[in-house]
# Entry
Amino acid sequence: MPQPYAPQRYDVITMGRIGVDLYPLRVGVPLAEVDTFGRYLGGSPSNVAVAAARLGRRTAVITRTGQDPFGEYLHEALRAFGVDDRWVTSVEDLPTPVAFCELFPPDHFPLYFYRRPTAPDLCIREGELEREPIRAARVFWMTGTGLSEEPSRTATLAALAHRAASGTTVFDLDWRPMFWPDPAAAREHYAKALAHATVAVGNPQECEVATGEREPHAAADALLAAGVELAVVKQGPEGVLAAHRDGTRVEVPPVAVEVVNGLGAGDAFGGALCHGLLAGWPLERVVRFANAAGAVVAARLACSAAMPYEEEVEQVAAGGPVPPDPSIPPPSGPAGGTRPEPEERVP
# Structure
């Protein structure tokens, strides 16, 4: 049962997607041939809350699950990661979503969402929101997926409006084409969210959906013009560009690691970005730290269970090796307990 709201404000509250990730324990194998999976908490804003909690921040997530065993698992997982689940409620007639992926490093990770007829996290209603904790949070994080359907769209925009740009309000552009009829349908709603956000984070494709601009510097300028104070453009192998309204602009190169699964890197980046902004670090240090956090998770199997602690991020940021992967399940047969090894893809 949700606990009564504690008056101590949260460092980070995220809002939006949650689900169960079922990731293969074999790399380089088509999903049709995978026979062993690891089960993990998933969903980008939920992973961001986990990432920030791993870095010592008081976090909570606003979302919904199915009223089923997978929903129970997600509550247990959030609590184990130190994320407050008081605003995670269930929807009686919808299943908890699941997502599968294929692992073809270094840059091909097809993702398959099972969220139909709709997902519980898109059923968050404006009247369910406890607005004062949202307004008081030092960082509020929301995503583009939360704008894709009603009633989540209205609830998300209401939460943004209630914050009235207090603290740090992050819009993770989070463009997922399977949740929208086309990019044009998203741009109007993205513009409304950008008007309330202080930080926007996205890759070039996401920036193009939001602003019409894909080139990183032009995209950053367009995001600043849309109302944010800080625009962060993630460019994968080209590194990260961050541009502040005060004229500060930094470009940080990528951190070289052996990629296992790139899907959680952006969420680790997001949690670390929140941590650095809360710490009041200079912008370049914030981005370098977030970049290193993303690299750690890219070198590991899972998303949530792979989120790094601060000392692990600092080790990689300083040029050290990625610490051992804690996200691989313990031995339970021939596929468990060892680092996934690439296999030849069967034609």
Residues 94 and 161 are 28 Å apart (CA to CA). Residues 331-347 have pLDDT under 50 and may be disordered.
